[in-house]
Each structure stands twice: as structure tokens, then as C-alpha cells.
Amino acid sequence: MNTNTEVANFVQLVQEVIGSEPAQLHEPSFGNKEKELVSHCIDSGFVSSVGSFVTDFESAIKEFTGSKHAIAVSSGTAALHVGLMLVGVMPDDEVIVPTSSFVATANAVMHAGANPFFVDSETKSLGMDPFALERVLRKLSRRGNTWVNSETGRRVAAIVPMHTFGHPTQIREIERIANDYEIPIVEDSAESLGSFVGETHTGTIGKVGVLSFNGNKIITTGGGGAILTQDDVLAERARSLTTTAKRPHAWEFYHSSVAWNYRMPNINAALGLAQVLRLPEYISKKRSLAQKYISVFSKSSGASFNIEPDGTLSNYWLCSVTLNEENDDLLRSILLSLAESGLNARPLWDPLHTLPMYRNSPRGDLSTSMSLRKRVISLPSSPFLSDRLGSLSTNFGARNA
Ligand SMILES: *Cc1c(COP(=O)(O)O)cnc(C)c1O
């Protein structure tokens, strides 16, 4: 098949699912409940760092995820930064992160004064490859009761797996390996609110988990994040570190350490509280959109839809396909042709170790991530797209008639 035919076929498959109207990659949607709660928050006068919506939002997140603690903060990146400090990451440490991730995963490591060590991903979940992780850990040397990268002399202090596009990574395997080395896990679950491994919500398996409520995530607070933990002491420290370490008191200003102003404002939590109520509906719509893409792309010989890994439930935050061949021209032509049809699709992030600030960071073999960058395409994934009538539905109609 020549490239033009392949590109045209690809665009047609997408349009069979979502029709030919323009579509964004992922759009938030709001209703009356959002307006009601935000309005209520404004009327109360408590829009900033004090107010009950934050506590109510945290309770809703705890209930949905089954996490013992949830601390709402100003962004997912802030949650990652504090999460790393909570598990004991210190300046000049190293933290193992997948090179296939959003840049915030590595930036948060730098914010904590530490250095990212990049590892490869696998093709099924698009997340951290447990075998690649194990190969890296086997090369570390023992110093006291810590593990040290002998090439840099730095302590490896944490591992940050990420659940790509909502698909749970092989977190149980990673957990087993991390336990062998007694290295704590901070789970970057920024994309996986509503995704489960068996019965367990992502972000509640690591010592600390992190959520994001940025505008492009499955639910949004405008901007925001949350720290999840099952540990009472860590939860207490998280609260303190994100609220300038102020001792609660009616009028005194006593602060026990240098800390951050990472608290989620009340007005953002009001928006978030209304959004959490929609989460079950969003997940079910995204899953039904994914089903349509699966059925349509089963006819494709050049691309396969990325299905949730066995034993997991994905929120399908972003639906994606992987092209069979590594072909720069084909990838570019597909993205261009989708854009010309008003359909917003994206390749995978540039692998983080290729960015200027991470060009000299330590790393393992990253060949799968480099290949995935040339083959993965994220497709329009907004929940309401599942209600659109693409030509797929017309065909179904015709067949039934
Ligand atoms: C969105 C995202 C973050 C950061 O969240 P913000 O709220 O935008 O700071 C971190 N990691 C991953 C993988 C993300 O997708």
C-alpha cells in the first residue's frame, strides 16, 4: 500500500468513529452543577486558601479512589514535587523515571534538587518496562543501606512509574522489583484517575500517588492536583509542606520549616467537586468511545489500537494507536492529514532524554521509547465524542435495516 492510501485509510477509520466534524484531543465539559458550586463559592467570599470545598473535594477523591488520604494541591507537578520529598528524595539523589512521559515527571525531580535517571517503556501499556528497570537496578552498588549508581556516585532514592494515557502500567511487577531493593515508588497517576489494577485504584499502590486536575485531564479544577497516600504520617507531612508549614492557630503565624504554598484554592475545589460527580459518566463514555475505535481499527493492517492491559481497567483518558512500522513520513502525513480534517491528534511526547535540559542525564537503553515516539498516535478522545454518529453508526444502521 502506498503512503497516500494508507493515510487516507487512517483518516477514514477515525471518521468512521467520530464523524467529520472537527474534534479536539480532549475537551473538558461543564454543566449547571459546576456553575452552581463555583457561584456558591464566590457568594461565600471564601475563594482562596480557606473554605470547605477543599475538604469536600478531598473526601470525594478519597471515596472514589479508596485512598486513605488525599491532599488537594495547586497542580500535578506540585503534587509530584512534594511526593518525592515525602518518600525521602534529597538534593543530589537520582530518581528513576520513564523517558516516555510528560515533561513534568522529570521536572518535579529537578524541583526536588535531584536528577532523573531515564528508563525505557514497553509497548503494551506504554509505561515503564519492569525488565528495563530491573536491568538498571542490577547494576547499582550497595553503600550502607542505600543503592548507588556507580557511574555518577549518586543514591537512587525513588522510582516514578507513570500510567500512560490512563492505561495502568505494570505496577505490580514494578512494585515487586522496587520492594526487593527497598526503593520507594511515587506513582505518577496524573492521567489515570478512574483506572484500576484489579480492584485497586492507580496511585494507591506506591508509597505516594499523584493526580492532576489540569484542564486537559479527565476531570478538571482549572488547575490542580492531589497527593494520595495510605500513610498517616506522610499525609500529615504533605499537608504541612503544601501549606507553608503553618501551625494551625486562630491568630499566630508560626511556621516550623521552609515549605511551599501549594494549597488548592477553594474556588478550584468547588469546580472539582462538581466534576467528580461526572467522573463515572466520563469513564463510561470514554470506554465506549474506545470500543468503537477498537472495532474500527481491527480492520486496519497498518495500526493497532492500544487496548487496556489484561487485568486492568483503563479510563481511556486518551485513545491511541501504534503504527506497525517506524516511518517518519507516514507518521507526519497522518498527523497532517488529520489536522487538515479538523481532527486534533498527537504523537507521543518527545522522549525526555532528548530535551536540552536532560541531554546529559543518566539512562538505560531507551530504544523502545524512541521507536514508540515514531509510531504512537493519540486520537480525539473527549467523552462526548462517543455520542457522535460517525459513518460506523450509519453502516450499523444500514446493516440492521
Ligand atoms: C499532566 C501531567 C502531569 C502534571 O500535572 P499538572 O497538573 O499539569 O502540573 C504530570 N505527569 C503527567 C504524566 C501528566 O500527564
Can you offer a commentary on this structure?
- With 401 residues, this protein is α+β, with helices and mostly antiparallel strands.
- It has helices spanning 3-18, 32-44, 52-65, 76-86, 104-111, 130-138, 171-181, 232-242, 266-297, 328-340, 367-373, 391-400, and strands at 69-73, 94-98, 115-119, 141-143, 146-149, 154-159, 186-188, 196-197, 200-201, 208-212, 225-229, 303-305, 312-313, 320-323, 346-347, 376-378.
- The strands form four sheets. A five-stranded mixed sheet has the order 3-2-6-5-4, sandwiched between helices. A four-stranded mixed sheet has the order 1-11-10-7.
- The longest helix is centred in the C-terminal third of the chain and has 32 residues, at 266-297.
- The protein binds pyridoxal-5'-phosphate.
- Pyridoxal-5'-phosphate is lined by residues 75-77, 101-102, 104-105, 162, 188, 190-191, 212, 214, 225.
- The site of pyridoxal-5'-phosphate has 14 residues, from helix 4 and helix 5.
Entry keywords:
four-stranded mixed sheet; 12 helices; alpha+beta; 401 residues; binds pyridoxal-5'-phosphate; disordered C terminus; 15% strand; single chain
Mean pLDDT metric: 95
Strand fraction: 5-15%
* Total number of beta strands: 16
Give the ligands present: pyridoxal-5'-phosphate
What's the helix-strand series? HHHEHEHEHEEEHEEEEEHHEEEHEHEH
Distance between the termini: 33 Å
Q: What share of residues is helical?
A: 25-40%
User: What is the spatial order of strands in the main beta sheet?
Assistant: 3-2-6-5-4
Q: Indicate the overall shape.
A: globular
- Helix-and-strand structural type: alpha+beta
How would you characterize the largest beta sheet? 5 strands, mixed
- Rg over alpha carbons: 22 Å
The low-confidence runs, each spanning 5 or more residues with pLDDT under 50, are: 394-401
Individual helix count: 12
